[in-house]
Structure prediction request, 764 residues.
Amino acid sequence: MHPEVLQEYKLGDMVAKYLIDRDSMQVGFQLLPEKVSQENIITDNCFMESLIQYKLTGDIYNEAYAGGCSMRNSESVRKLKFSEQTDESIGEQLQVNTIMMDEDGHRLIHHLVWLKNMPYVRISCTFENQSKRDCCLEMFESFSLGGLSPYMQGDGNGTLWLHRVRSVWSQEGRHETIPVEDLQLEPAWDPHAVRCERFGQAGSMPVNRFFPFAAIEDRKNHIFWGAQIAHPASWQMEVYRKDNGLALSGGLADRELGHWMKHVEPGKNFTTPEAIVSTAQTDSFDIFTGRLTTAGLVEGFLKAPESEQDLPIVFNEYCTTWGNPSHENICEIVDAIKGKGFKYFVIDCGWYKENGIPWDIGMGDYEVSSELFPDGMEKTVQVIKDAGMIPGIWFEIENVGSASRAYHLTEHLLHKDNVVLTTYFRRFWDMQDPWVDEYLTDKVIGTLKKYGFGYMKIDYNETIGIGCDGAESPGEALRKNMEATVLFIEKVKEEAAMRNLSSAVISFRTHPQQVLHPEIPFRMLTSPEERAELLRKTGIDRTIFLDFTPEMSLLSAYDFLKILSNRYCIKGLIIGYDHRFGHNRAEGFEEYVKYGKDLGIEIIHAPEFVTDLGPVSSSIIRKYLLQDDVCTANRLLSYPYTLHGNVVKGFQVGRKIGFPTANLNIDYPDKLIPANGVYAVRIGIPDGKHYGGMLNIGHRPTLNRPNDYSIEVNIFDFSEDLYGKTLSVELIEYVRTEKTFADIKALQSQLVKDKETIRKILSE
Prediction:
């Protein structure tokens, strides 16, 4: 191959260089330090590596001796041809998409994203199956950097070094530096065979053997290239060579290392985890890795919470009680450390222990131990708060111990080979199971809210291994389970963000009577959209609409409050003086208070709202509207009763007699329409202007159309076309009943009088 430059992008102090071989239409990718002269690049006997690396089942391996060594440069990769490249700048972000296609209907996209002034790029790849056949991926890497020795002749013997970080329990983060020759990565005398160092981790603990990181150092030219993988399950890195060039790639652990395969149906797609990739000219390993870890602090990626930005001191009591916390010993510890500068105090594992069961086999049920905390956790939490610290608590959310009741809930636990997956004395929740999500929401989020914890420590003390049942491969099932675990942690974070409580109104989108008794007509004063807008004007932070269903009608009051607590983080609930909820409305306010205390919700009793006109309720307002007393209804509402509707074509009789009308089709079918008759109204049109007018609701008896029910408005001093537009009509005052006139002329005469009357009303 004799590649030429397809495109270059200057990315701060880096250059992204896309190369293309015009004969094969293959595309390669290099990331180079910008301050190193591009004129110094040497392409001595270097194969151009494809920027996309993947393999489908049935593919031919790339070279002799590749099986079990590397899946790179497969038959599918060699079929890819360049299609197009696009770039788009949105604010501070540049995204470059390089699209490759083959003749089989496979479309692959290489995504590069760079944020202005950031010392790294984010890279991922997408596989789109545009064919008519199922495909099965068995290798798909997030990124691939080629040409990592472009500034030297030959293979750079003794110059290129691999950096990686080994990690095992109790010995985390051991930096390892190896010359590539010690990995037998010097090129073969005949490039017939490949050289590859493939390493990573199979399981649910990404740092159990290595950190998901690798870097190549050119010690002669003082340059680093490296990447980290943003993925919680099995992953791999590859350092690959077949000639003088060196390539670094990584992503999901493949079929051979991570037991991963992924079916992609026609019309479907799959995107790899994201890789954080960088390059720099420096002699400092720490400076280079700092470029990668910067990504964890950048807005839009993994923004650190406030607690990590000012690095407060956290006191964790584990090495004091060794898994045996109690109210008594925590009080002693708190007394010893208060005033010493600690911001958080964490109650670690064991707070759920019963009858001397060790902490590590009792986890999973997560009920506060009555033995260790005889007066309840509330008292202990208050001690921590009184000492000026924020209370925290420990969880290991993803697995259960052998002494817990949860250990035997086998239908909700992970299986492998149709047997419950058990490691030593732990089993794992199926995090994709909706029942598990609800269970953990209750046990984890419920505990945090109930006792007022402001900090949560999460441990991860076991690994699932190669994977589990539940997908086309153990590795894919593992990936899905870990994705679900991350989503639950995000759920916890969302709940935490809501701790600075906001105000909300809870409303049913549909009135319960409309669901339980659909045969009985029931009309609403407002649509859900009108309700939300009216409440917004009061300063309420949000409106929560619930869908009332037959299933919801069967919930007890306790179960309904539990939904409000778990799903919406409700801490205080104000209910009307006569409001009842729960199946058959069987319980009252005293029961609500009791349930609320159990769920961490303060139940507040709102008194009856009484004006000089008497009590206020929606039923009373409906009565006044149907009795043509719109003025009283408006006083009770505190705003004019309003109709919203689209203007539709009518019979245009009004136009012929000098009173053109806009015929309204009310946009909410369950809207209560007031009594028939003529009203003084104010009309709002789409441009925001308001006009006076008169509204008629009824059958227009003078026109002898008894079945022709209409809502039509004559807008004063207005003549523009409004067909298809939406109007708002505020009812100000009821003027008269609907009448039958002797003829059109008599009707016209009455309309003149009505207009004069209404102008006077609106002017007051």
About this structure: The chain has a mean pLDDT of 89. The radius of gyration is 35 Å. The first strand starts at residue 4 and ends at 11. The chain has 19 helices and 40 strands.
